[in-house]
Specification:
The chain is α+β, with helices and mostly antiparallel strands and 189 residues long. The protein is built from six helices and eight strands. It has two domains: 10-161, Alpha-Beta Plaits (2-Layer Sandwich); 162-189.
Length: 189
């Protein structure tokens, strides 16, 4: 029997807790920037986050890759630069040609194509490469930087198997409480 692969974990934000402070964006940009904020400022580097805080309909929260199980960006990428790898949807930047097909098909608007560095276009290319949340996979962190940086703990990494189990246990507890109530009510009648 074939062993079932676990679903990809996702970064989840509780919108009622989000302040819209952009700490998650800043921490993401620094985590992927290769240096701290002060060094980047001193060198004149542009740090780019892989998430984006968006406000709409009175709610503010970060938008980042949902690590889709059946990722449309991976199917659409003409160079095969986007693939499922170790529980996340990963971009092999060296294979990306910056065509923006992934940007067009992402249902969450979580992918951007920007110049790889602060270098000016050379007339042949803008050096654009697709970027998205990679759960800080190659930063040496135990958990994504945005989770650590959120002052209200609105952001968390959700293992969908664990979430499903918690929801099942909560429903069983509700059913058990209802059953006890109905049993006691019948005894009193």
């Amino acid at each position: 029997m074939k062993k079932q692969q676990r679903e990809n974990a996702i970064v989840f934000c509780a919108p009622e807790k989000c302040l819209g402070c952009h700490s998650c964006e800043l921490s993401c940009a620094v985590a992927h920037g290769g240096c701290d904020l002060f060094a980047a400022a001193a060198r004149g580097l542009t740090l780019r986050p892989r998430n984006r805080v968006v406000g709409a309909a009175g709610v503010t929260m970060p938008v980042q890759c949902r690590q889709c199980e059946d990722a449309p960006c991976a199917f659409a990428c003409p160079t095969g630069a986007i693939q499922q790898k170790d529980g996340l949807v990963a971009i092999r930047e060296k294979n990306c040609v910056g065509c923006k097909v992934c940007v067009m098909v992402c249902p969450f608007g979580a992918i951007s194509v920007k110049a790889e560095s602060d270098s000016a276009p050379d007339g042949r290319t803008n050096h654009g490469v697709a970027r998205k949340c990679d759960l800080c996979a190659d930063t040496g962190r135990e958990q994504p930087a945005c989770i650590e940086a959120c002052p209200t703990k609105a952001i968390s990494l959700v293992d969908l198997d664990e979430l499903r189990q918690s929801l099942l246990e909560a429903r069983v507890a509700e059913l058990a409480q209802s059953h006890r109530y109905l049993t006691q009510r019948r005894l009193k009648s």
